[in-house]
Amino acid sequence: MTSKSGYQNRIELMQGTLDMLVLKTLQWGAQHGYGISQAIRATSGDVLQVETGSLYPALHRLERQGWVTAEWKQSESNQRAKFYQITKLGKEQLARDYERWGRMVATIEGIMNAKRGEA
To answer: Comparing 57 with 4, which gets the higher pLDDT?
Structure first.
């Protein structure tokens, strides 16, 4: 259970954003699910915490789309784990998602910086 202040500081990911973050993480190399969640948490300065209940459905969805492949291997802790790797299609999707994300951020920033009555 997270503390109230920890909960207030969490950022809920918009639909599709988790897929983009997973693909970005996999650009750095093949990784198992726990490693992906830890990489997202660490690179976000502990702001983003991906729960198992969100991560694995996302990984399965990405695999069905052909954007990642999966292979069972031994982890660093010598346990059997499913490692995910981004595909060429996944890299192309990541580029599209990143472009769309940039447009969305710029649009929201424009709205937030607009003065009343500006169109």
So the answer is: 57
Which tokens belong to 51?
A: 């729960």
> Is there a contact between 27 and 86 (Cβ–Cβ < 8 Å)?
yes
Hey, what domains does the chain have and what are their CATH numbers? 4-113 (1.10.10.10)
Q: Are 54 and 18 in contact (CB under 8 A)?
A: yes
Say if residues 115 and 64 touch (Cβ distance below 8 Å): no
The residues facing 81 across adjacent strands are 73
For residue range 24-59, list pLDDT tens digits in order. Answer: 999 999 999 999 999 999 999 999 999 989 999 999
- Rounded to 5 degrees, what are φ and ψ at 6? -65, -40
- Note whether 17 and 44 are within 8 A (CB): no
Longest CA–CA span in the chain (Å) reads 62
pLDDT at 1: 41
The pTM for the full model equals: 0.82
What gap in Å lies between CA 60 and CA 74, rounded to an integer?
Answer: 20
Q: State the Rg of the chain over Cα.
A: 17
